[in-house]
């Protein structure tokens, strides 16, 4: 079964009204349908992907692209995710056990078996290995890019934007000029965005991640035309791999 058929037949709880409905409901008038199958809603990739979507929200609306997202978690996870990222709750669905991910054959993450550990403990052990780049190609390279900057990526924070939510005192985005100028992703800029996301999740861990047995599961991106023809897909190979081009994660829409 192709991805569109799987997605069009999938029924999940919608965060906005808590009802179970078809994932692609009310997408009939859209020029294109973008479906994000996210890992845990408290995952680095989920929060960062949502940030990019909010950044480009006006452009996506002008292109008449309907967006639907599914994340691993419960309704409380979805509400917290939407409140923090600004992602529309009417477009977010929750899948507590990642069943859709399995149907789509998305990468479940490293599965090194350790006798005597609970499913949650095994998942944590494998997640740590993935964070070190084992069974998660590109992760370390992407971590380092967050610190060294990237001239192929846009500036992430406006000069007058006040950056809060990190262990540091609040500061203006213009601070990053000291690290290398403006008009592109400066050193430490992406690392700061990720640090802010990490602080948010750690403060609300049990809400974002009600079951840590699924923390290694990766996601995928699927773009269809109005007839359900698959135009693009990306299957995440590891942590911080939610896009083929991480410098411009939504460039596939151009």
What can you tell me about this protein's structure?
The protein is an alpha+beta fold. It has one domain: Glutaredoxin. The chain has nine helices and nine strands. It has helices at residues 3-9, 44-55, 57-62, 75-85, 99-103, 119-131, 139-148, 189-203, 205-208; strands spanning 11-14, 20-22, 32-40, 65-72, 92-94, 162-163, 171-172, 220-225, 230-235. A seven-stranded mixed beta sheet has the order 2-1-5-4-3-8-9. The chain has a two-stranded antiparallel sheet with strand order 6-7. A hairpin with a 4-residue loop joins strand 8 (220-225) and strand 9. Helix 7 (139-148) crosses helix 8 (189-203). The chain is globular, with a radius of gyration of 18 Å. The relative contact order is 0.19. The model has no long low-confidence stretch (mean pLDDT 96). It comes from Okeanomitos corallinicola TIOX110. It holds the Pfam family AhpC-TSA_2. This is Peroxiredoxin-like family protein.
